[in-house]
Amino acid sequence: DVAMSDANAAAAAAADDDDGNDKESTDSTDDLQIPDDLEDDNDDDKDTPPADPTDAIVQAMTQKEEGNAAFKAGDYTTAVRSYRKGTTVLKPFNKSNTGDDQVKSLLLTLQTNLSMVCYKQEKYKMSRDVASKALEIDP
After folding, report:
1. 75 pLDDT higher than 90
2. Does residue 15 register a pLDDT over 60?
3. What is the predicted pLDDT for the residue at 42?
4. Which residue has the higher pLDDT, 11 or 110?
5. Number of H helices, E strands in the chain
6. What is the DSSP letter of 121?
7. Half-sphere exposure of residue 102, counting CA atoms within 13 Å on the CB side?
8. Distance of alpha carbon 130 from its chain centroid, rounded?
C-alpha cells in the first residue's frame, strides 16, 4: 500500500501549493470531475456496481492491489484507473457517508492513493481535490 503518511504529506503539500505554479488549471468543484486524461477509456467501470456489499469490497480490494502494483512499477496511468474503478464500485455503499467502517476505510485508502498518484504526476490541484474528498469520508 501507499503509506498513509505519504498520502497525508502529499495532501498537505498539495494544499499548501497555491502559489500559482501548478501545472494543472482545474478548478475545484463540489463533485470532483476527473479530467479526460485520467478517465479510463474502457467501459469496464461503466458496469452496474454489484448489489452485494461483500462483492463490491472484493472488487475494490482487487482494484486497490492492481493500483498498488502499478504505482510501484511507476505506471501511474494504470494506477489511477485501478483506484478510480475501486472507488466507483464502493461509492454506492457509502451514500451520504453512511457506509460501514470497512467500506469507509477502503474508500479512504483508494482516495488517498489516488491523491498520491496525482501528486506524483505533478497534478497538484487534482491531488488536493481528491484528498479533500477523502477528508469528507474521514474528517
Report:
1. yes
2. no
3. 46
4. 110
5. 5, 0
6. T
7. 8
8. 6
Averaged pLDDT for residues 46-74: 85
Helix, strand, coil fractions of the chain, as percent rounded to 5: 70, 0, 30
Q: Which three cell numbers stand for residue 86?
A: 475501486
Type of residue numbered 101: D
User: E strands within the chain?
Assistant: none
> In this structure, what C-alpha cell is assigned to residue 62?
482487487
Quote the cell numbers at residue 57: 469490497
Dig out the grid coordinates for 56 from the structure: 463490491
CA torsion sign for 102, 104, 107, 108 is negative
Reading the block at residue 14, the C-alpha cell is: 498539495
Q: Which residues contact 67 (CB under 8 A, 6 or more apart)?
A: 78, 79, 80, 81, 82, 83, 86, 110, 113, 117
Dihedral of the alpha carbons of 101, 108, 4, 115, in degrees to the nearest 10: 180
**pLDDT on residue 125:** 94
Kindly report the pTM of this predicted structure.
Answer: 0.65
Closest CA to 68 of 112, 133, 14, 17: 112
pLDDT given at position 138: 74
Name the grid cell of 69: 502494483
